[in-house]
Amino acid sequence: WDDKGNAYTGGANSHIYVWCGRELQKNYDVHGKGFVCAIKFCDGKIISGAKDCMVVISDPETGNSERSVDVGCLVRSVDYMGGNILVGLRDGTIKEINGSDNQTEVMKSHSTGEAWGLGIDGDTGFVSSGDDNKIMSWSIDDRKWKDVTEVCDEDKEAKRGGASTMSNLADSKCARAVAINSNGNGHVAVGHNDGRVTIRGGVGNLGSIEKTLTDSDEWIEAMSYSPDGSKLAVGSHDNNIYVYDSASYDKCYTCKAHNSFIVSVDWSEDGTFLRSVCGAHELLFFNGETGEQDPSGASNTKATVWQTSSAKYGWLVSGIFPACTDGTHINGVDFSKDGQLIATGDDYGLVNVWRNPARKGCTPISLRGHSEHVVRALFARGSDYIISIGGYDKTIMQWKKC
Questions:
Q1: pTM
Q2: What is d(CA 102, CA 85) in angstroms, rounded to the nearest whole number?
Q3: Of 381, 390, 301, nearest in space to 338 by CA
């Protein structure tokens, strides 16, 4: 709307329409093709963005373009102040354009399909991945991205059982699991939706692929490096857990006892046990040296301290499930380093914080912000922060303990 009460709308035919009340006064075209998906009136001018990847400043009186800038992606929103243009793009990037048409990237984000992958990088930041062919590193202090690189440059589908996604990219270009070898060689493992695992040079070198592992037949949901950094456990949707030596990435063994896809993998603090949960709601235990299942693992690990605690079943977390839910409601679990708190992400878009143990009848603090299911909620800097990542909302949120 302008200060005279006229309304301006963008059409699917690239035209801008000028209305007075219910009457169409005129229309004009400054984009040439594609629909106009963002429009704003400011200082007597129309700032519009369209599918043609152009931001155009036009005079609604004459219908002429006065300034146009190619931003390289479909435009979703625009704003204008003091000669500067702020543009939100379909790929999740926000750009500021100054009066000389120089573009500065203010923010980047995930943008297509779902965002699942999340790994904490010590006390400084974290790494995320999604179905948009992006792996991103982030700074906790700066609260913005540090680096972004592509998941894969090859189009390849899963051998069988691809992940359900709204992304139109190939399975090889989608990634839903991240593990960081903080106590070892610093490698970052990325689990792709076509079943491969790529080993990256480090958080500061995500574009360098050191090794590619191809044993899995289906997509990867859970991965974890051992406490001493010597092994990598990869939980696949083909029901297997593949364990590799992290120096050579030769396969050490395969854990094959599960009857459904693997959703979480934990190492004991001394590396002698593996604990995993699958889609059939099984909590199983394996020997960390041989990969053999320990049928009495629940009893044999009563005194075991776990390096990570992502299993959603067990005595300490028996109260995290609301009434009338079947176990699939909870997507991610994590314990704070001091063991005092438990964080969960659920299908209701909530990040829940519990006192440990979370037995039946316990009540959490529920943090609202995500608009879709939360797939991961991980503690950072002890228990000072929680980093959560949504699925369909493709949003990363950083929560600080007050």
A1: 0.92
A2: 10
A3: 381
